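During the second half of the funding period, the structural biology subgroup turned its attention to how the target accommodates small molecules. The most pressing case was NAP, which had performed well in the primary screen but for which no bound structure existed. We therefore specified the complex as follows and requested a full 3D prediction, including the ligand pose.
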Amino acid sequence: MSKVALITGVTGQDGAYLAEFLLKKGYIVHGLKRRSSMFNTDRIDHLYQDPHIENRNFILHYGDMTDSMNLTRIIQDVQPDEIYNLAAMSHVKVSFDTPEYTANADGIGTLRILEAVRLLGLTKKTRIYQASTSELYGLVQEVPQKETTPFYPRSPYAVAKLYGYWITVNYREAYGIHASNGILFNHESPLRGETFVTRKVTRAAARIALGMQDKVFMGNLSSRRDWGHAKDYVRAMYLILQQDQPDDYVIATGITTTIRDFIKMAFAEMGVEIAFSGEDAKEVGIIKSVDNKLFTEKAGAEYLSTIENRIGTEVVGVDERYFRPTEVELLIGDPTKSKTKLGWEPEYDLTALVKDMMQSDIKLMKKEAFLRDNGFKTLNYFE
Ligand code: NAP
Ligand code: GDD
């Protein structure tokens, strides 16, 4: 008998990779997707199965984390062996603009899932993975951060996730549910949302290289993140639910890097050297040199003269609108517990992650350039 999984947030970065991973393992995968005015299934289109075919193993349901009855009905229909609760308003900066909605979807949404499992009498059958976050550490109380490090959330998003974390622990202790938290540090990929910093940078670097954009405006260049690849991190989610006992785990690489250095790495992937000067809101990044051979190999000879003409000019600036009212300056995780107990090891390091993202965005932007040059509409929205 195939195991049945329900993934909330299946249309997101992690949801897409996890669905693919579980399908490969022979699961029947159900996913919760929101109704939207345009298709929002781009990341899972390759997995889509027509509702008219028999014995589908990938099935989507309309739903929302703010709708208890909807979630309860879906869980009743699906009778999942495993629920991966990934749905969330996941953008830290946006959570300052939508704090109440974020608390509802990310905090109370988690309660809705746990309570549905309890009310439906599924406490012994259904295992639950809660997508907790390194943002819980916020103003870090210890370096590196591990499972026992005290939390100090610094945004409405992190405070909502704090509720999600503790209500998961509480339902585990109170009702014996196999419910676990994965405290995941930042993880990225070519599927990363375009307004998170890594993807914003890889998209912009590719566009600048192809002469499609002059400059990118960033926020705090000095904050540090522990970045891994989403493909490695969804494997950890699965491993957490395969353990005999529920528990909470930090998933991280143990290496931290500034935003500034990530930008340098993204451009360097195409042989473009960026030099930073100035401070705070006046800091700028300038193209210092171009390795012609590497650039030709990665971006294409036809774009070489465009990038050479940009040597000495500013391609990175700072705009205070991207600063956060309270910032998380440093995240670096200690993954010892997950390595020892889960046997989890990441396959990608930061260099391999940057390479994967740059390769994908250069390809994507070449397609955009082709569409633009042939009179088709292209994406014109940047944040
Ligand atoms: P993501 O790409 O932003 O995906 C979020 C998913 O949640 C999307 O499918 C989104 O639907 C869905 N969603 C948002 N609000 C919803 C609502 N009210 N009802 C139903 N679905 C809703 O996020 P991700 O990077 O894959 O992250 C997955 C989870 O892990 C999130 O809970 C995030 O907070 C957490 N997390 C992420 C990281 C990271 O570095 N990526 C680290 C730690 C924890 P639409 O596609 O319709 O927007
Ligand atoms: N988004 C964004 N845009 N961030 C910027 C920018 C910019 O232009 N410039 C600098 N940054 C800095 C932010 O201030 C932050 O310190 C860092 O880059 C990372 O920002 P994000 O990529 O937006 O991610 P995040 O760390 O705030 O949150 C992500 O990781 C969390 C795990 O720690 C999200 O995926 C959360 O959902 C997740 O929980």
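Two results from this model are relevant to the next phase. Residues 9, 11-15, 32, 34, 36, 40, 64-66, 86-90, 105, 131, 133, 184, 186-187, 193 surround NAP (ligand 1) (CB under 6 Å). The two ends are 46 Å apart (CA to CA).
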